Amino acid sequence: MATSFEYAPAPESRGVVDIASSYGLFIDGDFVDGSGGSFKTISPASEEVLADIAEATEADVDLAVRAARRAYTRVWSRLSGRERGKYLFRIARILQERAREFAVLESLDNGKPIKESRDTDIPLAAAHFFYYAGWADKLSYAFPGETDPKPLGVAGQVIPWNFPLLMLAWKIAPALATGNTVVLKPAETTPLTALLFAQVCQQADLPPGVVNIVTGAGETGRAVVSHPGVNKVAFTGSTEVGRLIARAVAGTDKKVTLELGGKAANIVFDDAPVDQAVEGIVNGIFFNQGHVCCAGSRLLVQESVADEVLARLKRRMRTLRVGDPLDKNTDIGAINSREQLDKIRALSEIGEQEGSERWSAPCELPTRGFWFAPTIFTGVTQAHRIAREEIFGPVLSVLTFRTPKEAVEKANNTPFGLSAGIWSDKGSRILWMADQLRAGVVWANTFNKFDPTSPFGGYKESGYGREGGRHGLEGYLR
Ligand code: NAD
């Protein structure tokens, strides 16, 4: 049976972006050779090598931190907020002008579908720069009673691979708006848009040293966060590495924000508009291949409608197109790395071994690259590992409940607390639920909606501190 229309291929052109064969580090306004080795970044959809990337050593990180310190003392902290704002507006506009280039590069290096990089990642990254540009000259009004908030100095920032440019924007925009300078390390599997962003800094005439980009893996990240010249550490990534960082900075006067993992409940009540809820479930777990910290990876569905919701969900999942990230019709792209694919496979096997029932949408997966079919597990209990651990892939664990109270208990029964979703026709129930859920963000009748004006962050093992909104300024001010 044909489950969806056959679409002719509609690939976005790769020609809009120039990828160099190798990249150095961006320190003090220039690309320089690192003192260490190099590593390759590949397209996860084809395993094609895209470029050779310098691996920054401790000595390189030291140069970057010194450059950031000089830029902070001599230039950036002396500029008025209005002048800083002008640079941020300029960067935002260049990101918009070069959006297509960024979108193609992001999809190539990360594996995410072009419709997501084009319509979500890149526009939101630009929006963050616009938003914080607006705050740069209004900091004295941001916090009642605090008329002269001061920057911290040099921010050391480490980001993950799931939203490379967007996470960069979440980190760099508020840091610069508040008068700090930055040393940022992108993830080792997705360095390319950060390096293109370095070119944007040059194009915007940003004073040298205000933004420095050092590429590398965990060791480089460790060197950034533990450098004594760093005043502020901002990290987004796994809870495991978050713990290491919290330990490394304990006893120093570094200010820290940690944005870590999640295992969000997406809760569907029997009075929810079912088709909308199904779209929300699909968006909640299959957006960005499920590589989303706030993904709705635990579906809690009210028992009386569970069969109907699951039937419609499976029907919808049969129409998802998995394949070439650069094809405009693709819904689900490649898994970001072999390592991540192995982790998703291993946890899915554990799900089966522990007794849950696995169903994957029938789809043909490309032979090269890293792929995983959209999958759901039913018959999951709270004790199962797939109900407790973050899989960070296109895998949904389905649980049921009978009463709102039971829904709350199950939703909160997790070491994480980043996000949650509620689907119901009743406003009073939504407000009551939102009040009970221990999650930083609660969406009602929608999921995975982001806006630069809205703070984002977690409770418990999901980390601390908020990014976005006025709250996002706090982490960068004294
Ligand atoms: P990860 O923790 O392995 O890596 C994140 C970054 O930290 C990478 O740049 C990595 O090179 C670096 N790193 C690794 N070891 C380090 C160390 N010892 N010291 C300093 N830096 C180190 O995480 P990942 O697998 O790249 O990303 C996925 C995780 O990120 C998921 O758990 C996800 O939930 C989380 N995440 C959270 C948010 C949020 O806002 N809460 C957003 C996106 C992703």
Strand order of the largest sheet: 13-14-15-12-11-16-17
CATH architecture name of the largest domain: 3-Layer(aba) Sandwich
CATH topology of the largest domain: Aldehyde Dehydrogenase, Chain A, domain 1
**Secondary-structure class:** alpha/beta
Supply the key terms.
globular; 38% helix; 2 domains; Aldehyde Dehydrogenase, Chain A, domain 2; 18 strands; 478 residues; alpha/beta; 7-stranded mixed sheet; Aldehyde Dehydrogenase, Chain A, domain 1; binds nicotinamide-adenine-dinucleotide
Question: In words, what does this structure look like?
Answer:
With 478 residues, the protein is α/β, with parallel strands linked by helices. The protein has 2 domains: 14-259 and 460-474, Aldehyde Dehydrogenase, Chain A, domain 1, CATH 3.40.605.10; 265-444, 3-Layer(aba) Sandwich (Aldehyde Dehydrogenase, Chain A, domain 2). Helices cover 38% and strands 16% of the residues. It has 15 helices and 18 strands. The chain has helices at residues 58-74, 81-97, 99-110, 114-135, 164-177, 192-203, 218-226, 239-249, 274-286, 306-317, 338-353, 385-388, 404-412, 427-436, 471-474, and strands at residues 22-23, 25-27, 30-32, 38-42, 49-54, 154-158, 181-185, 211-213, 232-236, 255-259, 265-268, 298-302, 357-360, 375-378, 395-401, 419-423, 441-444, 463-464. The longest helix is centred in the N-terminal third of the chain and has 22 residues, at 114-135. It is globular, with a radius of gyration of 22 Å. The mean pLDDT is 97. It binds nicotinamide-adenine-dinucleotide.
